[in-house]
């Protein structure tokens, strides 16, 4: 089992938001030293809990501070943008880190609808997503556009021996089908749905897959996990994430609270959700969490798990990745 990382630059109570961005860059350097396969960055807009708004900018900062680890977007919310401009941005990134750039794209807005309209005033922009993906794939790989396409003869520069690796992201069957149709690698956001629909989406992807950018199905899943030196300490740290998830059920979003401030009384419905969340969560010592991740990987027949971890204390987040790397035998 290979392990990778997704980081969202989470906002934290009592800490300036710009620190979260710098913590992300430092975490990428740390995870490269630990032997992780990739380091991916998400895109969200006007969300009080997450300040990672521009993955391509963060990727550039990380590219010049690392030498081995793959760096990627998870992802660029393509309906907001011109595929040609995205291709140019990621070709520049590939020039900074040749052969190490992953270009993960998604259809979701990564924001509320008002914010999405500010990014792209066209309310039907998501309807063009399949065509956008096809255009992006062509410009990234250097293919010529078909006869009659307005972009025929236009090149996304700089050109190089290597090129960004396109990935399709999703948390439903839609992304799985599109990835299969275009022959793209596919990543399922297990942490968004708590695993609901994951096995079905991967099975659909494999059944419908047609060779394209890759010749055989290539998939991973992104899982929320947290490890600490003791199981008790892991659950104590989990209180911050737990509170955020419970609050989100009722539309309350805000910076991550320290564990000691995160505990509050829950009503019956909230408590039921909380207990279900705890039962589904990958929390414990490094060995305990890696054992569960291996079991998930075997059940889903995948070779790579991408881990996302929220903690109020960045040192606790780094320690979690250290423990998982040690238990998984990363080098």
UniProtKB/TrEMBL annotation:
Organism of origin: Ramlibacter monticola
One GO CC term, this protein: cytosol
Superkingdom: Bacteria
Cross-referenced InterPro entries: Bact_Lucif_Oxidored, CmoO-like, Luciferase-like_dom, Luciferase-like_sf
Family annotation (Pfam families): Bac_luciferase
Family: To bacterial alkanal monooxygenase alpha and beta chains.
Coiled coil: none
Domain Luciferase-like: 1-299
MF terms (GO), sorted A to Z: oxidoreductase activity, acting on paired donors, with incorporation or reduction of molecular oxygen
Protein name per UniProt: Luciferase-like monooxygenase
PANTHER family found in the cross-reference section: LUCIFERASE-LIKE MONOOXYGENASE (PTHR30137), N-ACETYL-S-ALKYLCYSTEINE MONOOXYGENASE (PTHR30137:SF20)
SUPFAM superfamilies, per the entry: Bacterial luciferase-like
């Amino acid at each position: 089992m290979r392990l990778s990382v997704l980081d969202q630059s989470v906002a934290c109570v009592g800490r300036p938001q710009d620190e979260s961005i710098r913590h992300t860059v430092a975490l990428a350097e740390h995870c490269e030293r630990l032997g992780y396969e990739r380091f991916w960055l998400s895109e969200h807009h006007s969300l009080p809990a997450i300040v990672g708004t521009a993955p391509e900018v963060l990727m550039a900062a990380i590219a010049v501070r690392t030498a081995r680890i793959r760096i990627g977007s998870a992802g660029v919310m393509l309906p907001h943008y011109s595929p040609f401009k995205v291709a140019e941005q990621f070709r520049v990134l590939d020039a900074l880190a040749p052969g190490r750039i992953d270009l993960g794209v998604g259809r979701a807005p990564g924001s509320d609808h008002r914010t999405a309209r500010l990014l792209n005033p066209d309310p039907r922009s998501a309807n063009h997503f399949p065509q956008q993906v096809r255009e992006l794939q062509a410009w990234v790989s250097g293919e010529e556009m078909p006869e009659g396409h307005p972009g025929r003869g236009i090149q996304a520069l700089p050109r190089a021996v290597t090129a960004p690796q396109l990935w399709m992201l999703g948390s439903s069957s839609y992304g799985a089908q599109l990835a299969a149709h275009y022959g793209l690698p596919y990543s399922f956001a297990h942490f968004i749905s708590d695993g609901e629909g994951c096995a079905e989406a991967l099975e659909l992807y494999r059944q419908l897959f047609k060779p394209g950018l890759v010749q055989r199905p290539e998939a991973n899943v992104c899982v929320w996990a947290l490890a600490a030196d003791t199981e008790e300490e892991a659950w104590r740290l989990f209180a911050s994430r737990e509170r955020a998830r419970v609050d989100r059920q009722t539309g309350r979003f805000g910076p991550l609270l320290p564990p000691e401030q995160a505990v509050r009384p829950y009503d019956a419905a909230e408590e039921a959700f909380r207990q279900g969340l705890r039962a589904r969560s990958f929390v414990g010592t490094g060995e305990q969490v890696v054992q569960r991740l291996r079991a998930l990987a075997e059940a889903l027949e995948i070779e790579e798990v991408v881990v996302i971890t929220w903690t109020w204390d960045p040192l606790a987040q780094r320690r979690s990745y250290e423990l998982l790397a040690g238990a998984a035998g990363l080098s």
